[in-house]
Write a structure and sequence with these properties.
Elements: H1 2-21, E1 30-38, E2 41-49, E3 87-88, E4 92-97, E5 100-106, E6 116-121, E7 129-130, E8 134-137, E9 146-151, E10 158-159, E11 163-169, E12 177-178, E13 182-187, E14 192-193, E15 198-200, E16 213-215, E17 219-220, E18 222-229, E19 236-243, E20 252-253, E21 258-262, E22 272-274, H2 286-296, E23 299-302, H3 313-318, E24 322-325, E25 333-334, E26 352-355, H4 360-367, E27 376-383, E28 388-400, E29 404-407, E30 410-413, E31 420-432, E32 438-445, E33 448-453, E34 459-460, E35 464-469, E36 476-477, E37 481-487, E38 490-496, E39 502-504, E40 509-513, H5 541-549, H6 554-566, H7 569-572
Parallel strand pairs: 23-35, 27-40
Antiparallel strand pairs: 1-2, 3-4, 4-9, 5-6, 5-12, 6-8, 7-9, 10-16, 11-13, 13-15, 14-16, 17-22, 18-19, 19-21, 20-22, 23-39, 24-25, 24-26, 27-28, 28-31, 29-30, 29-38, 31-32, 32-33, 34-35, 35-36, 37-38
Length: about 600
């Protein structure tokens, strides 16, 4: 008995000494007991246990945080149907649901190899029915939504599925997961289509009344959008979806659900929704548009070394911009303040172009722009069957400055390559017409760009997103740093940084077009000028490449030559750029 007692005492004293040594680490001892049997006797031994303060704790996944905008939504001005919570698609009413109950999750595969989570929407309003479950990658905060539907006229817009097909289960998958997940595809009745999947944590088929299918005349075709998850060891891939045809006149409506494709096939019968009657009652009126700009107007930060800033179009015209006519190059004319003497008809046929003042000193002054007078020019347009509003925020720069290239370890100036007069750049706000909430921002980057989910944006002064303008090139990025436009370690440098100079696009703005409001806004004459805002650059690209290659080692010369010749003319600066109304995104979706 004594050895046992003595051992117990020694263990307790050792525990106490460890407790004392770790007191500075705020480790609290926990009193525990254990029953020990010795020589036929049972003795309860008490001791202190201490958690290891040096043990690495699992970092919470980003999705474990529910995203919220930094500031509450304002009370929007009164209007017809904007931000009412429900949109009528012509007899099928829909609402956005953004509260979820987790059904199943994985912890590997997908973006950043962090896995994905699958949710059942909850708190669905009375009279509305579930159309599909929600899934999201674990690498960003939870910020999604799905649509729920209601048959507003009791005319059979919704029906239960007649069965389910198992698309995939994780039973045999050797992945890190919470339990086992089963992804089901509803089988719709004739004349109906399934909108989304059902996910369960058991092998039992879901109840038929769990979900509703939608009558075919309220549906449209979809396409895969962002990759959500794929285990890598199976042939399953999960994507978000969007309407196949998108633009001002397109009526396809995204549903917020996901598509699970096993071997690229299963789930191909799913559909998105459609605004069957082209109802535009949910679009914001002029007062609501003004309130949206006040709430979400982006801050654009310029690089500390930037030399070429924005200006208003009016300032550009008033400070010596000239209109040239082919065949009459020796006789350019001054441009009126509003651009009323610019040609208003025809396309970019090379017959006209705008250029800087002739005088060298004036030319250099105008190149630098005039930020104090810069305006944001807004194009407000319906998107996704008028369930969303896109506000394209256009910024005009008189000059796009010289670029630099990164070639392995070398940073080389590109000379005249990339320079051009008249630089139009934009960011686009995508706003839900269900509640007026910002859902994403598009950042234009030369000939293309990128959509960024609202949960991954930087904000200032409430809910105003931040954009970073690249040095001299003015492409827009959501975060500061270097983005290389090219392949591997060879490309054009897009350097961004948070300098002291920025543009608050909400201080000076002008809505130049919102066609759905008809005559509320008057278009400035310059908006309908479809020709070039800068001359065609007359430099010999061969000479420019040779100048640059002189500083490069032999092995890099051919790689750099190949890279430069692959750049589009818009990046090379050979062709004068056109204005906003000529771009594809004026009537269509943004180019990604």
């Amino acid at each position: 008995m004594v050895p046992l007692y003595g051992s117990a005492v020694r263990f307790s004293m050792e525990s106490l000494r460890v407790t004392k040594n770790l007191s500075s680490l705020n480790q609290q001892p926990r009193l525990e007991s254990v029953e020990v049997s010795t020589m036929g006797n049972r003795i309860n031994v008490s001791f202190f246990s201490i958690s290891n303060p040096f043990k690495k704790k699992n970092k919470p996944l980003p999705i474990e945080t529910v995203f919220k905008l930094p500031s509450p939504l304002p009370s929007w001005p009164k209007g017809e149907g904007f931000a009412s919570g429900i949109i009528d698609l012509g007899g099928l009413q829909v609402c956005q649901v953004s509260t979820f109950s987790k059904v199943w999750a994985t912890h590997e595969g997908g973006p950043d190899d962090l896995g994905a989570s699958f949710f059942e929407p909850s708190s669905i309003p009375d009279g509305f029915f579930l159309l599909g479950f929600y899934s999201q990658s674990n690498n960003r905060p939870l910020s999604g939504w799905v649509l729920a539907g209601k048959d507003a006229k009791n005319e059979g817009a919704l029906k239960e599925p007649i069965d389910y097909t198992l698309v995939w289960s994780s039973e045999s998958s050797k992945i890190k997961q919470d339990g086992v997940g089963y992804i089901w595809l509803p089988t719709p009745p004739d004349g109906y289509k399934a909108i989304g999947h059902v996910v369960t944590s058991s092998a039992e088929k879901p109840a038929l009344d769990k979900i509703r299918c939608v009558r075919s005349d309220f549906t449209d075709s979809y396409e895969n959008d962002a990759w959500i998850w794929g285990p890598g060891k199976d042939n399953l891939n999960v994507y978000s979806t969007r309407p196949s045809v998108r633009g001002v006149q397109a009526m396809g409506v995204p549903t917020g659900t996901f598509i699970a494709q096993n071997n690229g096939a299963a789930g191909s019968t799913l559909a998105c929704l459609k605004n069957a009657k082209a109802n535009k009652n949910a679009l914001p009126n002029s007062n609501q548009v003004k309130a949206l700009i006040q709430a979400y107007s982006p801050y654009i930060y310029f690089h500390p070394d930037e030399n070429y800033y924005p200006s208003s179009v009016t300032w550009f015209f008033e400070n010596g911009a000239l209109l040239y006519t082919k065949g009459q190059e020796s006789n350019p004319i001054a441009i009126n303040t509003t651009g009323s003497n610019l040609p208003q008809e025809g396309g970019n046929d090379g017959a006209y172009w705008i250029d800087l003042p002739i005088n060298d000193s004036e030319k250099e002054r105008v190149k630098k722009g005039y930020l104090q007078d810069a305006y944001a020019y807004l194009h407000v347009k319906p998107m996704f069957g008028a369930t969303y509003t896109d506000i394209a925020v256009w910024i005009f720069y008189p000059f796009n400055g010289p670029a630099k290239a990164k070639v392995e370890f070398f940073n080389v100036p590109l000379g005249k390559i990339g320079e051009h007069v008249g630089d139009w750049e934009h960011v686009t706000l995508r706003i839900s017409n269900f509640n007026g909430e910002l859902k994403g921002v598009y950042f234009s980057q030369h000939s293309k760009g990128v959509w960024v989910d609202v949960s991954e944006l930087e904000f200032e002064n409430g809910n105003k997103p931040v954009a970073y303008s690249s040095l001299h090139g003015h492409a827009s990025y959501p975060k500061p740093g270097l983005v290389l436009q090219g392949n591997g370690n060879i490309g054009i440098r897009n350097d961004t940084a948070k300098g002291k100079i920025f543009m608050n696009t909400g201080e000076k703005f002008s809505v130049v077009n919102a066609d759905y409001m008809e005559s509320v806004y008057e278009e400035p004459p310059w908006l309908n000028y479809a020709r070039a805002w800068g001359p065609k650059i007359s430099y010999n690209i061969e000479d420019e490449i040779k100048k640059i290659e002189k500083v490069l080692p032999g092995k890099l010369k051919s790689a750099f030559d190949k890279f430069v010749r692959s750049l589009p003319k818009e990046v090379l600066g050979e062709e004068g750029p056109t204005g906003p109304k000529v771009k594809d995104n004026w009537l269509g979706d943004e180019n990604v």
